[in-house]
C-alpha cells in the first residue's frame, strides 16, 4: 500500500484498439480525390517582340525592287527585246562548200575596170588552170568601176565549181546570182542537147592589187 506522501504513479496509455485504427485510416478526405496530373488552368501568352523599323524598311525595299524588275522583264518579253532562246554561232549552221576545179563549165570573163588588159589576163589564167580556149570568152562590162572581183554562179549545184574557179584566178568572191548568166548558143550545148553550165567572172578594181 503506498504511503500518503509518495507521488502518484503515471497512468499507462491504453493500447489502441486495432479496429478503431483501421477505421480512422479508411476515412477519405478531399486530398484523396486529387487527379494524378492536374489539369491546366489558365494560359500564359508570351509578349510579341517589337519589330524593328530597319527590318520593315529593308523588306519594303526588297519587295519594291522585285516588283519593278518583274515589270521591266515583262515589258521586254512583250516587246520582243528579250529572247533567251539559244542562238547558233555565225557560220555554225551552214557548211562551206569545198572548191573544185571543173573544166566542164563555160567561163565568161567581163572586165569591169578601166584597164583593158585585165580581161585578157584573167582569161589566160583560166585557160592555164585547165579550161579549153574555146570555153573561155572575154568581154568588157557595162561599167569600169566594179569594186571586187567576183565569180557568179546560177544554182547551188555550181558553188563548188565557182569556188574552184575563184581560186584558179588567184582568189575572188563568189555569189549565187544569175544576173550575169548568158544564154549559150545551140552549138555550145552538151552531147545530150542540154545547155552547158556557165560561170561568170566580173573583174573588179581589186584584181592584181595585192
Automatic annotation (TrEMBL):
Residues 1-29 are annotated as: Disordered. Residues 1-11 have a biased composition (Pro residues). The keyword Nucleotide-binding does not apply. Residues 105-207 form the LytR/CpsA/Psr regulator C-terminal domain. It comes from the Bacteria. The keyword Transmembrane applies. The chain crosses the membrane at residues 56-78. Keywords: Membrane, Transmembrane, Transmembrane helix. Pfam families: LytR_C (PF13399). This is LytR/CpsA/Psr regulator C-terminal domain-containing protein. It comes from Microbacterium oleivorans.
Amino acid at each position: 500500500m503506498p504511503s500518503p506522501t509518495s507521488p502518484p504513479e503515471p497512468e499507462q496509455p491504453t493500447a489502441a484498439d486495432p479496429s478503431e485504427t483501421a477505421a480512422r485510416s479508411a476515412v477519405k478526405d478531399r486530398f484523396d480525390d486529387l487527379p494524378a496530373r492536374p489539369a491546366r488552368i489558365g494560359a500564359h501568352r508570351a509578349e510579341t517582340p517589337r519589330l524593328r523599323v530597319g527590318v520593315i524598311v529593308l523588306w519594303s525595299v526588297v519587295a519594291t525592287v522585285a516588283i519593278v524588275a518583274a515589270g521591266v522583264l515583262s515589258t521586254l518579253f512583250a516587246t520582243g527585246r528579250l529572247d533567251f532562246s539559244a542562238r547558233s554561232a555565225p557560220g555554225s549552221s551552214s557548211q562551206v562548200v569545198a572548191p573544185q576545179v571543173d573544166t566542164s563549165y563555160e567561163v565568161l570573163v567581163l572586165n569591169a575596170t578601166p584597164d583593158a588588159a585585165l580581161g585578157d589576163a584573167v582569161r589566160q589564167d583560166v585557160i592555164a588552170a585547165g579550161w579549153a580556149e574555146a570555153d573561155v570568152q572575154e568581154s568588157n562590162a557595162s561599167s569600169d568601176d566594179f569594186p571586187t572581183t567576183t565569180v557568179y554562179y546560177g544554182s547551188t549545184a555550181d558553188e563548188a565549181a565557182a569556188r574552184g574557179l575563184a581560186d584558179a584566178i588567184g582568189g575572188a568572191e563568189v555569189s549565187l546570182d544569175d544576173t550575169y548568166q548568158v544564154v549559150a548558143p545551140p552549138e555550145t550545148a552538151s552531147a545530150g542537147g542540154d545547155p552547158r553550165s556557165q560561170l561568170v567572172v566580173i573583174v573588179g578594181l581589186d584584181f592584181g592589187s595585192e
